[in-house]
User: What shape does this take?
Amino acid sequence: MESVIDQAFAAALYTEGDAGLDAGASLLAAAPESDAELVRRGEEFVRRAWQRGWLPADVVRLVRRDLDEHAAGLAAGLIASEVRRYDELPPRWRAQLDELPAAPPANRPDRFSYASGLLVLFRLLLALPAIEPVGPPPGAAREALTRPPAAGEPRMLTRIRALLAKAEATGFPEEAEALTTKAQELMARHSIDEALLAARTHGDRTPGACRIGVDAPYETAKAILLDAVASANRCRAVWNSDLGFTTVVGFEADLEAVELLQTSLLVQGTAAMTRAEAGQRAGGRKRTKTFRQSFLMAYAQRLGGRLADGTARATAEAEGDTAADSALLPVLAARDLAVTETADQMFPRTTTTRVRGATDLDGWTHGTEAADRARMGGEPRGIRR
Assistant: This one.
């Protein structure tokens, strides 16, 4: 005999329209004895997402974008309960699980609404496409889940985070400039030290990948900024505009640098844009979407050159350091090649898309000035998709 769960799923998940959804939710609301099985089925849908290449943060981000915050909480609850079955989790998973939103109480505000919310979530989970995996899934062999940290990594990252936090908090552009510049120099030098150490010890570390959300509004400008940050830190970035994320390919220390710097520069850029808009409104101009779009485009474009210059300076200084390995440039070239080959294997059919240019001169000017203050030009660059 077909179970209540199967009947509800047949009505709500495999037919279109709200009528089937309401019918399925009504069946579940009237059958409290099916609650445990409903959660177990939800965990299965989440597990399928892992098999298709999704990570916890990816799932929650998409659910929040396509549904709402309540649905994101429901997804987080299922994720948290599903991963309890694993003895080991990849390091990046542990960090993402710590940042999941709180799960709402079961059967609130009432059984029907709760069941309806779960069914809508299950519809979305069933429709998730397969995407490129960026690491081992939970339950993989232990050696695939762990990787030895780079020497000195925790201390260096703590120092970089502290510098960027100060840059975000200060109200003085010159101070933010100095702090952000110092953080980028530390990132670049740490990457060089990591490369030399791996070469000397014949380490078997290979490039990995991570995904970073690129959310609306102004996602094109944000994707360009992320591409610039990735390039400056010896990584490759591929933007998936439909699913709202960029996959960054690189060595682990560089991936962590990209995540830290992208977050900080977005915070700094948004704050600078808000201040610039306030000045525009004081002059009698209303806030406009074109101003903000042009501001962020200019901010991203300008920072691309600044970041690349900072990395070049750090590399030149390391090459001239008498204590540095004489084979620095060949080592970096080999790592660049490894990153390129890994990215090409993951994304054999990427395209370069020309993006719409800026149309607001004031926005472009203010964005360029903000990028100069952040210290991190030219023609619009393409984005790999």
Remarks:
- Strands lie at 208-213, 236-240, 245-250, 352-353, 383-384.
- Residues 148-152, 375-382 have pLDDT under 50 and may be disordered.
- The first helix runs from residue 4 to 12.
- The two ends are 48 Å apart (CA to CA).
